[in-house]
Amino acid sequence: MKIGVLAMQGAFREHIASLAALGVEGVEIRRERQLEGIAGLIIPGGESTTIGKLMVEFNLLEPIRELAAAGMPVFGTCAGMVLLARDIIGSDQPRLGLMHVSVQRNAYGRQVDSFEVDLEIPVLGEEPFHAVFIRAPYLERVEPPAESLATFMGKTVMARQGNLLATAFHPELTKDLRVHRYFLEMIK
Amino acid sequence: MGGTKMAAAEKGTWTVKKGLAEMLKGGVIMDVTTPEQAKIAEEAGACAVMALERVPADIRAAGGVARMADPTVILRIMDAVTIPVMAKARIGHFVEAQILEALGVDYIDESEVLTPADEEFHINKHEFKVPFVCGARNLGEALRRIGEGAAMIRTKGEPGTGNVVEAVRHMRRVMSEIRRVQNLPDEELMTFAKEIQAPYELVKQVKELGRLPVVNFAAGGIATPADAALMMQLGADGIFVGSGIFKSSDPMKRARAIVAATTHFREPEILAEVSKDLGEAMPGLEIATIRQEERMQERGW
């Protein structure tokens, strides 16, 4: 099984390393033809405006929407969460727009406010998940069929809608592989 | 709700400092001097901007002492865009860095483009919550800066020249020294650390990782999409473009082309396509015509 990792810009190397630690091959996706044969797709952290513009320029938005509509699991972290959201507060930037959520970009402030914290994520079990938030977004609204899987200070920071998964934090920057494993289980 | 969780949240850690640089990888960071330029950069797909009063080519032309930008300029640029904003402090000028941190900039470049404030000591970057990027010409210099707390490294190149030759030299040097470390038996690491004047623990990390322990960008003289792709193929994690964009005849088009070239650096047909009809590049400078004492890369150690 191969998992695509969108490699327009951002932390794609770390996601590929997390997948490798789980014994799964991650392949870099920069062109439409590279989407062939992947069982799932990860959209990494990075700058959502940069990644979105490059997805438009190199014609990746529609092919990925089609694959997601056909049931292929897609997992977005940070910028990836922004790109998956239907509504981006105060922005008309390009996006996949698949999840019924409203996202606030840079929701916790600038870089000096970036933080790490232990989160309770019931779907991952009792042990808290050490989450790294970097100029992170949060979800202001989550509407069915999307559902919140974790919150921090009252705002959703992890959500799922069927075959779509999004986190505001960066599981690829820590050694804890439970979020990636949860995503891989969505594929089976 | 969340009150106790908030108390447990830790800011300014090494992970979040280094982490932001990881998020910038594969992207282009552009020098801008006005909010309008910042918007052009963002629209073109820059992953961050460097807020300056003057681009390096103008600093070089103006001469005199180059200092941190006026906070008003930086704040206006921060208001204009949603992408991260970086700003430069003079080498060793920790008060300029304190001011930039207070302004809320996302990254500080302790930069040889400005006139050094201290010829002996760089800033103790561990003391800050805001992360730092520093220039380096070789592995020893890169590891000394990381030892002082830099969470990101870039080549120095020769800023403001539009001539990529020095950035190439510095990137090749760092990469070849990394390859050398990987082939050294453990008992030779201490002597190697002594030779390149680098912290031993970091030399060991380089051997284990096969790369620098932080993100390594290319900077200093990059002017075309081909330059950007060249640096990426030589092993850069991303690109800084200083004077190259807003000193060219069509900044938006050139900026977009450099962004596309940085993503698709291994695809010559895309590089060919985006290199078409870009107009005039910035006028370049032959390095040999710059007097030794005017070479910015000689600043810092």
From TrEMBL, chain A:
Active site: C78, H170, E172
GO molecular function: glutaminase activity; pyridoxal 5'-phosphate synthase (glutamine hydrolysing) activity; transferase activity
Self-association state and partner proteins as the record states: In the presence of PdxS, forms a dodecamer of heterodimers. Only shows activity in the heterodimer.
UniProt keyword list: Glutamine amidotransferase, Hydrolase, Lyase, Pyridoxal phosphate, Transferase
Entry's EC annotation: 4.3.3.6, 3.5.1.2
Catalytic activity, reaction form: L-glutamine + H2O = L-glutamate + NH4(+); aldehydo-D-ribose 5-phosphate + D-glyceraldehyde 3-phosphate + L-glutamine = pyridoxal 5'-phosphate + L-glutamate + phosphate + 3 H2O + H(+)
Pfam families: SNO
One GO CC term, this protein: glutaminase complex
Pathway: Cofactor biosynthesis; pyridoxal 5'-phosphate biosynthesis
Lineage: Bacteria, Bacillati, Bacillota, Clostridia, Neomoorellales
Annotated coiled-coil segments of the chain: none
Family listed: Belongs to the glutaminase PdxT/SNO family.
Protein name stated in the entry: Pyridoxal 5'-phosphate synthase subunit PdxT
Entry-linked InterPro entries: Class_I_gatase-like, PdxT/SNO, PdxT/SNO_CS
Keyword check for Transport: no
Sequence positions that bind L-glutamine: G46, E47, S48, R105, I134, R135
A single GO BP: L-glutamine catabolic process
Source organism, top-level taxon: Bacteria
Protein role: Catalyzes the hydrolysis of glutamine to glutamate and ammonia as part of the biosynthesis of pyridoxal 5'-phosphate. The resulting ammonia molecule is channeled to the active site of PdxS.
From TrEMBL, chain B:
PdxS/SNZ N-terminal domain location: 14-219
PROSITE patterns reported in the protein's UniProt record: PDXS_SNZ_1, PDXS_SNZ_2
Superkingdom classification of source: Bacteria
Binding-site positions, D-ribose 5-phosphate: D31, G160, G221, G242, S243
Residues annotated as the enzyme's active site: K88 (schiff-base intermediate with d-ribose 5-phosphate)
InterPro entries in alphabetical order: Aldolase_TIM, PdxS/SNZ, PdxS/SNZ_N, RibuloseP-bd_barrel
EC top class, as a word: lyase
Keyword Lyase (UniProt): yes
List of residues binding D-glyceraldehyde 3-phosphate: R172
UniProt keyword list: Lyase, Pyridoxal phosphate, Schiff base
Signal sequence, renumbered to the chain: none
SUPFAM superfamilies: Ribulose-phoshate binding barrel (SSF51366)
GO molecular-function terms, A-Z: pyridoxal 5'-phosphate synthase (glutamine hydrolysing) activity
GO BP terms, alphabetized: amino acid metabolic process; pyridoxal phosphate biosynthetic process; pyridoxine biosynthetic process
The enzyme's E.C. designation: 4.3.3.6
This protein's pathway: Cofactor biosynthesis; pyridoxal 5'-phosphate biosynthesis
Gene3D superfamilies, per database record: Aldolase class I (3.20.20.70)
Reactions it catalyzes: aldehydo-D-ribose 5-phosphate + D-glyceraldehyde 3-phosphate + L-glutamine = pyridoxal 5'-phosphate + L-glutamate + phosphate + 3 H2O + H(+)
NCBIfam families reported for this sequence: PRK04180.1, pyridoxal 5'-phosphate synthase lyase subunit PdxS
Function as written in the Swiss-Prot or TrEMBL entry: Catalyzes the formation of pyridoxal 5'-phosphate from ribose 5-phosphate (RBP), glyceraldehyde 3-phosphate (G3P) and ammonia. The ammonia is provided by the PdxT subunit. Can also use ribulose 5-phosphate and dihydroxyacetone phosphate as substrates, resulting from enzyme-catalyzed isomerization of RBP and G3P, respectively.
Record family assignment: Belongs to the PdxS/SNZ family.
Record note on quaternary structure: Homohexamer and homododecamer. In the presence of PdxT, forms a dodecamer of heterodimers.
Protein known as: Pyridoxal 5'-phosphate synthase subunit PdxS
Native organism: Moorella mulderi DSM 14980
